[in-house]
Specification:
The protein has about 80 residues and is mostly helical. It has six helices and no strands.
Length: about 80
């Protein structure tokens, strides 16, 4: 698993959910700079941060790692 894959997926899901960085940071209770560094591939999220981000995005770990697949929660948003 590369940082780039994780960072791209994180950004992809944030954008599918139509969340700004500040919105997702608030929903996930993480610092905006932490989110930025994770999205830009500068850092891997820690275990705790990763699960906070999943909660903020409202996706499961399996949905996060199912690269190229739009999670069910975001299908209506993307199609609408």
């Amino acid at each position: 698993m590369t940082k780039l894959k994780v960072s791209n997926r994180l950004r992809e899901l944030r954008e599918l959910g139509d969340y700004s960085r500040p919105e997702l940071a608030k929903r996930a209770d993480v610092a905006i700079d932490t989110l930025r560094k994770n999205e830009e591939g500068l850092n891997y999220p820690t275990f705790i941060i990763f699960f906070r981000l999943l909660k903020g995005l409202e996706v499961t770990p399996s949905e996060f790692f199912d690269f190229g697949v739009v999670p069910q929660k975001y299908r209506n948003i993307k199609e609408g």
